[in-house]
Amino acid sequence: MKPLQGKVAVVAGATRGSGRGIAVALGEAGATVYCTGRSARGSLSDMNRAETIEETADRVTAGGGTGIPVRVDHTVEEEVKALFERVRREQSGRLDILVNDVWGGDPLSEWNTSFWEHSLDNGLLMQRRAVHSHMITSYYGAPLMIERRQGLIIEITDGTDYRYRGNLYYSLAKISVIHLAQAMAAELKPYNVTALALTPGFLRSEAMLDHFGVTEDNWREAGQIDPHFLMSETPAYIGRAVAALASDPEVALKSGQALSTWALSDEYGFTDRDGSRPHWGNYAAEQGF
Q: Fewest CB within a 10 Å sphere: which of 96, 130, 132, 268?
């Protein structure tokens, strides 16, 4: 038996990056994973990237789980409601794991720009995509867990604290979901449902590889452009962190906390795809970040 055999998960924002890594890792652990997002075959989102939820679902199934792609815009309440009605119908009301990884804020972030000079429309849209979508998703997903008095909700973010992250709107989005996890944990505690936040380190996502003009085979060459990239981690790392949390019978002890891939690697012993264990926390401390 795989550790998550028989478990049902929804990964919101599973098209690429952390979401794809998480969905695949849950599949490798045996879970049934609903892979949601806006980019589907024949209908890509305004991110204008080639990755699709169907590709992610195929990887989940190839890894040993069951991948189910569902096109959902998580800022549209009716679509989110329909998603969880489908999960309830197809899985007899079972939902064990909900991961909120919807983001879509990269093209909206105007770095090195003061908030009063930044596009207000872009700043507000970032909150809609990266915070409101998480709230809507948990609103409809949590009741399935409450009914069965078990479940795990994970908010994917950037960082583990409330410090400024270089852009007001970006900071607000990333910090808000940390507090969402903390507040949900308090309200869900009587129902034995756990909520927590989780951050990767420097994520070597598909978009980041494209940004540096490298592939996963020669990614270290990008270290000549940005030396920090040599401490980056693949989406598989955060995926294995989520799988480890979901497999931990004592995960409720972490409810309300903001966790990191590197600290969980220390605790659970999982590695990145190449067998390494990137530790962004130690590296950041050494660099004085």
A: 268
* Amino acid in position 175: I
Is 222 in contact with 212 (CB distance < 8 Å)? Answer: yes
Whole-angstrom distance, CA of residue 153 vs CA of residue 103: 16
Is 170 labeled as catalytic in the residue annotation?
yes
pLDDT digits (tens, 9 = 90+) for 19-72: 999 999 999 999 999 999 999 988 888 888 989 999 999 999 999 999 999 999
Q: pTM here?
A: 0.97
Please check whether residue 268 is in contact with residue 246, taking contact to mean a CB–CB distance below 8 angstroms.
no
The one catalytic residue in 140, 170, 191, 268 is 170
- Structure-derived torsion over alpha carbons of residues 14, 25, 196, 161, reported in degrees to the nearest 10: -80
* Residue 34: closest CA among 78, 98, 122: 98
Alpha helices (H) along the chain = 17-28, 53-62, 77-90, 120-127, 133-148, 168-188, 206-212, 235-247, 261-268, 280-287
- Cα angle value 3/80/136 (rounded, 5°): 90
**Residues 6 or more apart whose Cβ sits within 8 Å of residue 194:** 151, 152, 153, 185, 188, 251, 252, 254, 255
Helix (H, G, I), strand (E, B) or coil at 93: coil
Alpha-carbon span 149 to 145, nearest angstrom: 6
Q: What share of the chain is helix, strand, coil (3-state, %, to 5)?
A: 50, 15, 35
